[in-house]
Fold these 2 entries.
Entry 1:
Amino acid sequence: TDVTSSKEDVEQDLLRILSYQAESAITQGNNQEAVVYIQRCKEILLRLPKDTAFLSLLCYNFGVDMYHLRKFEDSAFWLSQSYDIGKMNAKYAPGSEVLAKVLRLLATVYLEWDCQRFQDKALNAVSLANKECVSAFGLYLKIRILLTSGASDNHIRAGLNEMLESEASLEVCLNTVKLLMAEDREVLAFEYLKRMCQHFESSPDLGTALVLHIELLLQRGKELLGKQKIEDIITGHYTGKQLTPQALTTLHVMLWDKAANHFETSNYSEALQWYNYSLSFFKAGQMEPNLAKLQRNRASCFLQLKQLEKAKEAIKEAERCDPDCIFTQFSVYKIAVQENNMEKGTCKTLYFHFVGVCVCVCVLVCVLVTAWNLALQCESSPDRMRDFFVLSYQLSQLCPPDRTLLMGQRTCLLMAAAASLELCRKSPHSTQTEELTQALEHIQICWEIWKTLKASGSFPADPTDSLLLLYEFEARAKLNDPKVETIVESVLELENVEAKVLETIAALAMEPPAHFPLLCKKALRVALSLHKKQPQPDLAHCSKCVHSLIKLSLPSGVSEVEAHVLEEVWDYYEEALSIIASAPDDFAVMETLWLLTRAWNTGILLYSLAQYPEAEKWCGLAMSFVRHLGTLQESYETQMSGLYSEILDRLDKEKRNRNMEE
């Protein structure tokens, strides 16, 4: 019995050492070396099944790392290993939710690698995942794979039925409709959309689906059906079935686009009908600049249709909503001249002078707006987007300065800076300096404009300060400019700084070529503090901050750890335990498992370095996470308690040996 126990002890230690060596090999890019270590671990696992979940999770993490590096073949190998190991022993397996997650990622790898070549493997993986633990994401992934592999409508229809039966969210179903349309499965998309609207009939967000339905009908030239749907929505609007503000805004934009297209082709009656649909959603007496613009557009249609009285009524409403607008006054003059009303028109000469001025202003504004719109249309081309926003800013300098103009200039420069930074991210390292320098130029001019604007009045809840600081931080960090520390201080001095701003700072501090780990940790610590001060702390964000702090301070694959680093990381672990204790049911099990594994591996590393008291401390810390593993608790408790006892016994032996030597 003693011999057997001793052999198990040796194999247990060997398994831990081999797994640690595999992790180190992956970190150093030696994938084949890691494969050899894990294969030896699997051989030991046949005799020590209690480590099944641990080894399965380790392979899953390797698969995730390879996926992020776009090494699909290696990723598929490790994820397959993770699943196979997880199925080796049902008693000590990591659980169906974890195995389903492994399989979904494996299916995604096959899909992104080469779906035509690996469609059977991808479908098999996602089908197994949905059998292990069905989820909306798994069902959506199955539809993606079926579409990409060119499956028949009947196969896809079966997948869509599964999704509705599984009570997937409205958002997931809408994304599925968009996916079907993108893959030219129009019949299926409309069929599914109709069923979806029936399924979510009582949902307050049903309007989002209805608006999407209209959008798709109009895109396919089915205007008559689209109009019927719009009229149904208008009826619902006045019978207690209002759209959400976001859905209503989307619908207004759609209606105006259709009207503008008809106006450009001289189909004024049709244009008027689409504008009238938009008008139906405004309350009587409502005051809003958009309503003034809508009434001006309606007046233009009436004038083209020679309906002068109706044009006058529309312009009267526009004047009520926005009396100082030059475009409204221009429309008043146009109507006055058509009426031969000299009191309003003053005289032909004055009128033509006025028209001349208006034309000049209109042309300038039109060119400016065109540059702006072209910039927005160039989302996939950051260099063009930047150039058009810069052009829009330059044209605006020819206009008389006022508060509205300055706000437009600020937005142009912000967008130009953002486009320059995006271009930098996509450029080779050798050409990044020029893009970053340009971004800084836009940012500096924007700061000056923003100071002028702030001097003219207050801007509560305006994000400009945060955006400018974020953009400047990114540019200077990638230029390795020491001023980044000053920018972080400026961020911390902002009134009501948001945690997400600091989280972004932290991410940018480590985005290559930037490398400022100390600033990253500083930002994360403050972000964590802000999250904790909320009336209802966001545990997911708190957990993410702690995870990043631990990962930064204690990277995987290291061969030694300094004492002050261990002390720092220990504080982060205590923070993690307090977060879990505050809401144990809301903390992700996979995150708890990651914390446990990292603490345990640290203990094993310290043990291998003969730092026995520290090893005992860190293994004990890992044990404190076991009770928070939910369905995995029993499995890990059994295997880790034995290991922990063995470590304690060995530590006692080491202490006794040292005492005897002394």
Entry 2:
Amino acid sequence: MPQNASAITSQDFVEVSFEKAVYPLEVSIFETYNPGALVRIWALGPTAWMLLWEGEPEYVGDTPRIFSPPIRQINVPTRILRLEFNHKLLPYYTELDAVLLRGRQPANLTKHLRNNFSYSSLFYKPVVEKGQLLNRIIASNLHENIAPQIVTPRGQKQIDTGPPLGDFQQLPDETTLCVMKYLDIQSLCRCAQVNRHFNRLASDYILYRSIDLRPYWHCVQSQVLATLSMRCKFLQKLDLSWCGSHRMIQPNYVVNFLKDSGAELTHLRMNCCKFVDNSVLRAIVDTSTSLQELCLRSVVGCSDWICLSALKKLKRLDLYRTDITTSAAVAIIRSNPGLRHLNVGSCKMISSMDEVAIALGGNCPNLVSVDFWKSYSLTPNGIRALGNCKMLQELDVGWCLQAGGSGEWLGWLSVGELRKLFLGALRGVCDRDLRSLIPRAPKLAQLDLLGVRAVTADICDSILAECKDLRLLDVSFCDQIQEAQVVEWREQYPHVSIKRSFQSANLNTAPNPLFLAPSLE
């Protein structure tokens, strides 16, 4: 349901906690690097998340700032904030130094903090400000808007007691369903409450083949899954990413939902979901045997990763920052020769990333993209095996320090289809290595040389001149490349976005005095 996306979308988030709970009066964000990405501030109350502030992303230059937007006043204390970001207007990564929460400490903390980390009631109605439509919609509990499907006993005449629908009653059901396909899930739930006729149509299985609950992460609780399962008999795509924080969703509800509605699933995303445990992994394997895409980014605490090797049809697998082991990753790869996209970046429990790379080279000839970011056990021996992957378009070996002694392994890759190459912090890569790459990678569109200190302006000149499809070049922290040269390139190649961190211009400047002594008054 792409129509579920809010007007202001967010791309990622960070949660921060404080020692004491307070009634929030002010939130200050210390933005030291590329400010302007913050779009929402949430506060966790005893049983629900509450929106404190929302705003469009903005570009405000590269000057550090303390951002203190006017926040909504709430009548419950909090010690946990969630900040959401959208980086679309920024030229480079954003960076925060600190988050300051200023507020009034409640007299009786015990009463308010009893359930700060748990949700004792699934039916808590969050505090809303009357008259503010946006806050009313965002703070609404989704499950309260989902009316259960009404089943009329066989032989009993249906009596429509709802309001007259005018011309809608004259339309064929197929026409009304066609209109309803354009509604977001909250609107469908409201339609189901109009009358029995609309309840029947708004509960039709065909409207629930693709469900994206990520925009509603702040209010999706276990009961939502129990209610939706009655409508999701033909469900093919499900996104639960970001949902279930602080016990809002219990694993057994997810297991039951998958058993009831997961048989037809082809795409499943559960990124940053705390409820994913071994029982959920097994339920995925037992019920969703047709999965082609499985995304479990930042899922930790599971030990039965190897059970995923029972899946045989995976084309995309995202395990970024999980605790999957070497043996489990290799087993999954061998079971899925059709795998095209794999992310095992920052998987610290994989003790030998070479074995993973070798398994990819030997079993996945149609591999399109692979992300090894911060895989400290990956060496040139593992990368050599990827030479068998002739369709490779995207490779990230940034911060794979054991592969950074030299860049000779670039000559072993099949790069005829390569579009994106990330070499961040590989200090052994030099001009000679890149020069041999240029004529073999005619489709190269993005090259990340962040921190590759041996490269010079000469090789960058050649890359910009010869790689006609190039659209992004990152030369941040490249010591031998001067700012004046970057300015010249930007004028000469306006179609290429050339990134260079401004750190060298700011290293010798005094810290922002506001950062040194922020006012707590």
